[in-house]
């Protein structure tokens, strides 16, 4: 095996989803095809796969794209079911390729992302958005339970929702002072974190202490935020599912 892939490889592309989104890039089905091609080319052997764990991330990009391109949220429950159904088929494909253990992340509380809580001046999460997340996670858990009936305990769901909410509800326990307000923001609504103007002058601000913030920008946690979530997952014994 080439040295550079000995410890694994990432096929995810930022902004993409289970289906196509507004972000140009391969959706999850195509990402799995890229993985399959490496197996076909002999980069990964059957022995490698039987000693491997695959992490499948569904971060909610499908839903933000759907809401942005559909005037009414009326058909959202049906769309959630289709996203979970396709995710389940994707998990099955990865298993059939020979990977021994597959972990899929449940959705984090999308209603607590700063791009949503900005409407309340970063004071409270949006219950409607989190109801959508609950539907997704319930259907995902049911799908994974069904898969495990065919492949004994090969699949597990990583409970990101409850680990996120635990940190957000008890921030000081994790040395987090600003749980909903992002650290990095644009100087006004025309700019975002990392923006520069035509003269390459930065048009964003960064907080004094990123380690005290849970969110880095409007959608991503800081390193400290992820560390707090990881510690919570560990105390929840959620990481035991990854072990062989």
TrEMBL record:
Matches recorded under InterPro entries: GDSL, SGNH_hydro_sf
Pfam families named in the record: Lipase_GDSL (PF00657)
Superkingdom of source: Eukaryota
SUPFAM superfamilies tied to this protein: SGNH hydrolase
Keywords: Hydrolase, Lipid degradation, Lipid metabolism
Similarity annotation: Belongs to the 'GDSL' lipolytic enzyme family.
Name this polypeptide is given: GDSL esterase/lipase
Source organism (scientific name): Stylosanthes scabra
């Amino acid at each position: 095996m080439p040295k550079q892939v000995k410890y694994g490889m990432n096929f995810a592309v930022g902004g993409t989803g289970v289906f196509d989104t507004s972000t140009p890039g391969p959706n999850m089905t195509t990402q799995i095809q890229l993985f399959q091609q490496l197996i076909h080319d002999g980069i990964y052997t059957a022995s490698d796969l039987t000693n491997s764990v695959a992490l499948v991330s569904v971060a909610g990009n499908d839903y933000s794209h759907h809401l942005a391109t559909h005037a009414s949220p009326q058909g959202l429950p049906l769309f959630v079911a289709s996203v979970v159904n396709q995710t389940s088929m994707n998990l099955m494909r990865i298993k059939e390729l020979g990977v021994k253990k597959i972990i899929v992340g449940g959705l984090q509380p999308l209603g607590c992302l700063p791009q949503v809580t900005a409407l309340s001046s970063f004071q409270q999460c949006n219950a409607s958005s989190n109801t959508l997340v609950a539907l997704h996670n319930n259907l995902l858990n049911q799908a994974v339970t069904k898969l495990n009936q065919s492949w004994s305990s090969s699949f597990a769901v990583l409970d990101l929702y409850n680990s996120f909410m635990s940190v957000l509800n008890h921030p000081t326990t994790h040395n987090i002072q600003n749980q909903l307000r992002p650290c990095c923001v644009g100087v006004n609504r025309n700019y975002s974190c990392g923006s520069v103007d035509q003269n390459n002058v930065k048009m964003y601000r960064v907080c004094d202490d990123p380690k005290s913030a849970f969110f880095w920008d409007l959608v991503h946690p800081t390193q400290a935020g992820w560390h707090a979530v990881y510690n919570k997952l560990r105390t929840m014994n959620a990481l035991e599912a990854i072990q062989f």
